[in-house]
Amino acid sequence: MVLVERTPCAGAAPFSPLQRSTPRASREASPPSDPILPYLRSIKKAIDEIRAHPECYHTALEQLKIYVTECIDKYGDDYQYSTDPRLLKIWILYVTYLLLKCQC
Q1: Has residue 9 been placed in a domain?
Q2: In total, how many domains does the chain have?
Q3: CB 3.0–4.6 Å: which of 25, 46, 73, 75 could bond 64 by disulfide?
Q4: pLDDT per residue as tens digits for the range 47-81
Q5: Please, is 3 exposed, middle or buried when counting C-beta atoms within 10 Å of its C-beta (0-12, 13-18, 19+)?
Q6: How far is CA 85 from CA 35, 38, 70, 101, in A?
């Protein structure tokens, strides 16, 4: 189980990937036959955080990018998930946030 420290965004230190243990996606109560599910849950939490707390946009966006990138790196080329619509949604998020990064 991965524990994530929740702190207010105001005055928060820059995001550091060294503060997290690997894997970054929460593995709580996920069946072993569905390894994408923890990433989907973590991505949903990050998106909800962006919507609920606009002042934390950059921190939550960095977390979202990490979850999406890690999932794509791990399962993007896997034939087993090539027809999984959930992975297609993650690919779309991946492209969307890469474009946002390029526009900044």
Answers
A1: no
A2: 1
A3: 46
A4: 899 889 888 888 888 899 899 999 999 998 989 88
A5: exposed
A6: 14, 16, 17, 24
